[in-house]
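Quick log. Single chain, no ligands specified.
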Amino acid sequence: MFILATPTPPANADALTLALSNALAAIFNLPSNRKCVTIQSSFFPSIESVTVDLSGASVDPTRLPPKPEQLSAREKGPVVAQFKLMGQPISYQKAGINLNLAATNVLFDYARDEQQRLLLVPSHIESGELRIDVRHADLEALILAGAQLAAAPHGVNIQRVQLTASSLGSRSAKINLRIVAKKLFITATIRITGQLEIDELLNASLNNLSCEGDGVVGSIATGLLRPKLQQIDGKTFPLMAFSLGDTKLQAIQFTTSDPLSLRASFGS
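-> predicted structure:
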C-alpha cells in the first residue's frame, strides 16, 4: 500500500512514476543521483513492469505515514505483470537492511483513507516472495547508539553490545544481549533477554523482556534500561515502510544466523 502524492488517480505511466517517487520521498531520504521508480507500460493502465530501487536510501521512523484505519470505496487501478522492490541496503539509523520483494500479476485498486489521501492498494497478487536480511553487527550498532543516548546523562558509558539469537520456530527467536557499561573506573555487564516474534502481517514484537546487571554500575544501568524496555515490551513494530494491503502471507521463515533473515511467500 502506498499513499500517493497526488489528489487524483494518475492518467498515465509518467504521472504514476512521479506520484510514487514523491510519495517515497516523503518517507525516505533518497539518493539524488538516480531514479528510484521505473515503470514500463505500453497500454496504461496495463503495466509490464514496476521497479522500485531504494538502495542507498535511509528511512526516518518519525516520517512513516500512519496505517489507514478505514478505506473508502475502491476503484480499479493499474495491473502490473512484474513488480520489484529492492534496497541494497536501506539504512535505518545505524542499521543497514537488505530488502528484496518480487511479485507477479499484481492488481491494484485506488482508495482513500480517512484523511482523503489517495492510496494505491494491492488487491490481488498471483505470487510473490520477500526477503529481509540484517547483519548482527548492524543491529548491535543500532542498540549501542540507543543505549548510549539513554545512559550518557547519568554518567554511564555504554561501551559494547553483543547480540546472540536462537530460533524458537519459524516466526520467533530468543534474543540475548550482553552490554558492557562503565562509570568512572568501574565496569559492569548487563544482560537483557527476551523473545522476538513476527506475525502474519510482518510486524515484529519483543516480549518477556528482562534485564539484570552486576554490581553498583550494573544496578544503575539496569535502572535506566528497565523503563525503556517496559515501553517496548509487547508492542509491535512494522518491518516494512509499506503494507501488502489485502495480500495474505502464505509462509514465513525466520532464521537467526548472521545475518538475521526473514523469508516470506505470499499471494491472493
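Residues 215-232 form the longest helix (18 residues).
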